[in-house]
């Protein structure tokens, strides 16, 4: 028996323990160890029943995702096949019980469903999250789950990939009992009852009573497909998962398993799955900061304070309250403060009304927020976040005041979206405690938190900020200090190209439509209308003096603002908006665009979808390469995670840098050079892009090489 799987005996009951930290993944050796244990149990007459349990934090959390890359790259010849080991569990002549704590996900649940019975602690979760990796269950999960939970539940779980808690799994028939107290003892007691009962251990694959019939199943699959096309737009895996569950209702078990395997392989070898596996590991990679290890001391965050109760300040205060951290929220006028509190209350009430959490949770969270007009209590705060108007003078004035008020060792964070953290820190005597915490609107919803280090920010403050982002359920990404940091700096190039394309001949709805079809949550012009065109207009006016003569700048957005067309908030921007805020193309805007193009001597032309995608996506990639070279982002994958969690970039494309790798950096670079020749210095190729393109390399390889030397 490998140390990955151990077999012990408790009287007549055998206990199989899986020891593969940290999540007991089904890495090579684990399935083999389980199969070996089951064979021994089947052959040993002194054993009358068996239990399997995971050591450490969880049951089996799935196949080892690291193995998929080896398969798709050809490094590993044979695929991942747990079907035989699961079948051997099912065919064991003695009752077997899976004892679940933590998570039984993916292959973990599939293995558990091969057991005759499943018991769990109340805090356990079960699920088939494979679609979140762009694949589907590949070990008969789509065939056994409908046999235990019924077709509707199985279809929903395999298509959306969301886990369910033990109590729902019990109600659905996926588990047989919830164990109070010690899980192993409870599981052993359970299997002893089954031994005593003498009942024939039920084989899940033979349980067909919940498979329904064509008449009852057809509407389930039709609704599931319609939902997947809406909520997982562009993705193949959810639809494949539904096909696989449908096969379970129409074919024999073995034929259904064969169909599942076909669909699994189609997904596994797709670009979408490679991208989503890149994202899975990327979301964990960004938490690893070279030079700031797990042993870096952190500052205890028990009390917070926020300056500003506007859209951002209120959302930030909610983040702290949601994490159970008391937070003071300060404003300058009672009217602004009351408005901020009212917005928070409305947001929470919406969640209660939608059943996301009960009223008492809302009441508890509201009680954690202390709205006030003074700095009272700020000297007790462990972290103070400034979220006021985006003007450097005001921010420096506030940080200078905080320097006098905050206790020694308090973190002073700015929510600035573009301004220099170095300059803000210079207003204090404690620059090592100053950092950027750039949230994305709405701050209580968007997962991304750009953590902006200044030249002086200490490792402790960075380590604390990274840990705090996890506590606030954010994806914290450490970035360097430059205008726009990472996300907004790249967005500036992306938005510029979108507007140039409009001036050159594409209609606004064509630019937005092409990018929506590409997978973006919204097109850039519609995003501008949503955020308010006046925001960018104010910043451009503040920086007009920096515009280089002879260099082309987009003109239409400024003109729209001059006409009071700020977007949704004024009922018109790039589009007109009806009472339901539906965007309607506006002939007045078309006429304005033609007028501006003519005034600039731009000969308008038909612009293809392909050019729209290339001009906008390659502008992102080229700027991302410059950001990498400057060390503003630690890795290309950090840029990808920023775009996925803060800018509505489709996970199944992996992020802008991963997309560049998928297209091929040589092709990207060649097109950037063409755009440079046609459109001037905005398109100056990034030297790193040139270097990687000419070496036939990828950004992923760049990251790997950098990690190897870190
Ligand atoms: N394979 C390999 N590594 C994994 C892993 C997995 N399945 N799950 C987690 N890790 C690593 C992770 O990268 C991190 O590594 C460490 O474990 C801690 O993870 C056949 C084909 C279980 C809820 O999709 O959802 O089964 O960064 O930080 O917050 O049909 O991990 O420390 O080096 O996330 O406590 C299906 C994925 C696979 C589950 C724990 N299973 N994992 O969360 O820890 S496909 C999944 C999770 C499959 C079958 C198919 C979470 C977790 P490092 P963590 P956590």
Verbal overview:
The protein is an alpha/beta fold. It folds into three domains: 5-269, 2-enoyl-CoA Hydratase, Chain A, domain 1; 304-479, 3-Layer(aba) Sandwich (Rossmann fold), CATH 3.40.50; 487-709, N-(1-d-carboxylethyl)-l-norvaline Dehydrogenase, domain 2 (Orthogonal Bundle). 50% of the residues lie in helices and 11% in strands. It is built from 30 helices and 19 strands. The strands form four sheets. It has an eight-stranded mixed β-sheet with strand order 12-11-10-13-14-15-16-17, sandwiched between helices. The chain has a six-stranded mixed β-sheet with strand order 1-2-3-4-6-9, sandwiched between helices. Strands 5-7-8 form a three-stranded mixed β-sheet. α13 links the parallel β10 (304-307) and β11 (327-330). It is globular and about 90 Å long. The two termini are 37 Å apart. The model has no long low-confidence stretch (mean pLDDT 96).
Feature tags:
710 residues, alpha/beta, 2-enoyl-CoA Hydratase, Chain A, domain 1, Rossmann fold, six-stranded mixed β-sheet, 50% helix, binds (2S,3S)-3-hydroxy-2-methylbutanoyl-COA
